[in-house]
Every structure is written in structure tokens, then in C-alpha cells.
Amino acid sequence: MARGELAWLRPHGVDSAALIVRLGPFTPPPPFWTVPLPERWRSVRSGHARAAQLLAAGLVSAAGRAFRRSLRAAAAAAGPPPLSPAVSELKAELHAGLAEVQLRLGHAAAAAANAGKALELRPAHLGARYARGVASAAMMDLELAREDLLAVLRARPGHAGASRELGRVRSKARQRDTQLATRLGKMFA
Questions:
Q1: Cβ distance 120 to 82 under 8 Å?
Q2: Can you give the residue range of the structural domain that contains 91?
């Protein structure tokens, strides 16, 4: 449709009623960097909330897109370092959420990188530490995974996911050590 064009809309199942719509002019949104700073951060926060909703609903790919879009907007709105504590907190949440999405999609290296960025911004972020631990275990960096998962369990002793993952990490480490001992035994026998 072009500007000024008419469209007749007829609801499904109704023969007599019709709605006439005339397309008006389009006004493009202003560039993000020209929007006042409080409005930019409101946009970033609403994008984070939307991404969290999508993730909770199980729409993992859509949540990933929303987290990435919010991170780009946060980077544009934040300006150069040093960041204020509120900005650091929000960016850490966005990186941690993106790391969780990437874990669910099976992208362990990207998840570890985003969890690491979240931990740089907020070292006490348990969600990011757990995500980095799980991603490290998936990449067979068992020592880092063990350290991260133990840190999560020290902070929150009843964390079921960290306990389960730590058991898996210990099992993988035992298997790795057994295989190494077997190979060394064959080499020096």
C-alpha cells in the first residue's frame, strides 16, 4: 500500500460490514542516539523485561534476539566507561540472560563469553557464574567449571542445578583421569 491508498477490510464470516482504511503518512522514528537519555534507558529496560518474558515462555530464539537488541541499545545508551552501578547491573543482567539463552541453544563458547562479561560487570552474579560453570563443563574446561559451581554452592548451598552439574563435572574428571592413567600405563609399560 502507498500513502493515501484505501483498503476495504471485511471481517471473516460477516457479509455486510466492511471497514475502510486510508493509509496515512509514515513518520520514521528518530535515531536512537537523538532520543533523550532517560527514554533510551526506559527502552533498554523494557527490552530486558520482554526478553525475560520470552525466555520464561520457552521462546528461546526470540529471547536471544531480544537480549541482543537490548544489549546493543544499552551499549549505545551507556557511553564510555566507567559505567554507573545501575548501568553495570543492567548490562550484567542482559549478558547473563543472553548466556542462558546460548546455553539452551547449545552454544557453550558464546555462553561462557557472555557470562564472563556479566561477571566482569558484577562479580557476585550467581546466574552468570552458574552459566559459565555449565558452559565450561560443556567445553571440557573442568577446573573452571568446578570453581564456578563451587562458588555458586558456597553462595547458595541448596542450588539444585549447581549440585547436579558439579556431580557431572566430577564424573567427567574421573573419566578423564582414568583414561589418562591408562594411556600413561601403556606408554611406560
A1: no
A2: 37-160
Domain containing residue 42: CATH number: 1.25.40.10
What span, in angstroms and rounded, lies between the C-alpha atoms of 143 and 140? Answer: 9
10, three cell numbers:
471485511
> Cα 149 from chain centroid?
19
Predicted structure pTM score = 0.78
pLDDT tens digits, one per residue of 125-180: 999 999 999 999 999 999 999 999 999 999 999 899 999 999 999 999 999 989 99
Long-range contacts of 165-169 (CB under 8 A, 24+ apart): 165/130, 165/133, 165/134, 165/137, 168/137, 169/133, 169/137, 169/142, 169/145
